[in-house]
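FW: tagging you since you asked about this chain on Friday. Here's the raw sequence from the shared folder, copied in full. Didn't touch anything.
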Amino acid sequence: MSVMEILTEEFLAELPDDPRAAFGMVLRRAETYLAEALGAIDDQGNNWHSYESAQHTAMNTIIAVAKRYEIEPFASMTVPTRKGFGSEQFAEFKVDLDHYAAQLLLDNSIRSKRDAIAIEAKIKDRLRQHVHGIKTLIDQADMPEPRRAVLRKRIAEFEAALETPRVNVVMLAGIMVAILAGAANIAQLADSPTMHKLVSTIMNTIGEAKAIDDEKRELPPAQSPQPLLPPRPASQIPTASKGRSPTSADLDDEIPF
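HL: got it, structure written out here
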């Protein structure tokens, strides 16, 4: 088992810049990875050792990603050794992980709703026309088909987002930036005044729609993310583990691992 099976190049390319949102996506990806590993176990229980290896890989990945994104308390955790590791340890780890994950998901949902706006039908139609113009330029440009497929996928994501009642404008802007980045090495697109005008118009329209919606909703100032709270009181943490860096033995009792 390898972390590369979870953090594939394609998956990494889709991660957002926001650390907490990206960490949440990694948690969901790890869940999918473990579900696939569990599905490989037959009725006789064969491949159980491989499933436990997958659980260890998932835990290793989650802790490593948390360290990179500085997501506590996982960033301070120690990865357990594979020897002696079993599903019961992972089950206990998962209990605490779910507690923190629930807080992360709620925080991400609050931020997502803040960036989601109701766009008038006539403005949506205008955006669709501009996006159709970009799609036409992409179809007419000379480029490798894999690159064209990626750009078309971005266009489809934009169009799908417009069909929702409330549209995440940050996501829409991100898609436009991704389209520009993907077209950067395509001369017919990079040097096209029409392409740049269409993208600029779309970005301006998104910004205006967001400003109008903000005025209607009278949103309070955005607040910094709140710290994640532990699943149990600090008084329940063994005294022997306080005042020093956590070891794998401590984490067996605290998190536990």
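FW: Residues 237-257 have pLDDT under 50 and may be disordered.
HL: agreed, and The first helix runs from residue 9 to 14.
FW: great, closing this out.
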